[in-house]
User: What shape does this take?
Amino acid sequence: MYKNLVATLVAACFISPVFPQTKAQTPAQTPAQATAPTAATAPLKIGFLYVAPLTDAGWVRQHEEGRKAVQAALGDQVKTTYVENVAEGADAERVIRDLAATGHQLIFTPSFGYMEPTLKVAQEFPNVKFESITGYKTAPNVAVANARYYEGRYLAGIAAGRMTTSNVAGYVAGFPIPEVLQGINAFALGMRSVNPKAGVKVIWLNTWFDPARERDAAMTLFNQGADVMAFHTGSSAVMVAAQERGKLAIAYHSDMRNIAPDAQVLAVTHRWGAYYTARVKAVLKGNWKSGKVWGGVKDGMVKVEGFGSKVPPAVQQEVLARQLDMAKGRLHPFKARQPVLDNVGQVVIAQGQTLSDMEILQMNFLVQGVQGKLP
Assistant: This one.
């Protein structure tokens, strides 16, 4: 979802897979012609790009569930299609342009590395609406949206802190960008809020989707004493590794109990259906506007659920109670009840202070309890 990233980025962090061959069926069109429906009753054509293959669980699966929710809610008012496993950069730009040129009037691009290609194509097709998911740059016809994944991470940390016996958690991470740092830090703070002896070991992969490397990293962390694992990558490989080793793991993006029935502690799931459907309805009604959305537990965009069979009822009740507190505004992962230090001993959140959204979006440190340095 991200490439060529630096720590000062403002924001972060698969039905037929065949791309419709509309070019072969219609004559060449100008951008203006391509965006006009052929009839008043024609369905709204909507395109989705997916950065990795469509699998049964993970980042891409959750966006596919969002697409399906749109189709189910709006029926013959819309016609949706997707293209999976599209690399960020030039490939993404080509596919986005193809979708716009073949009459898609609304295009969702859910990967940070799609942001710049989306903006470039949007300039060429001013009558097409674009939704840049996890991007942060807007344009008159480009809106952005993201979710506060760190909220679910904090709640998962509470469960991990209660479940660990080694007091060591592992974390397999894609890229060291603010969205991932938010998740690692919130997870560590959640763990240590109930278990001050707990710590987190991180392995950086510098990729979002490489199941073999994700599995190897998890195995390495298990060998280093971790007995519960979290991850910020695109596949379910970490869950598979935990199941194989008889360890525990936090599912991410999707509920993965079908993959790791004995290993899953809980799942931090992402819910895109309501947002996607609302944005499509806005286009249909003619009142779509560019803007920025950063939703979380309160908005139903992030949820902790799917507790595994090994999680005691008391732990489940505690986590769900804290999730309710978060939804009601009574709990913030980055509010310091005592000074929060980074892992080199500097105060990063003063006692009684709460990080602002901008400070969270620019996060560039690891909190105390997280081992290692930023690459």
User: Anything to note?
Assistant: Confidence is low (pLDDT under 50) at residues 1-39.
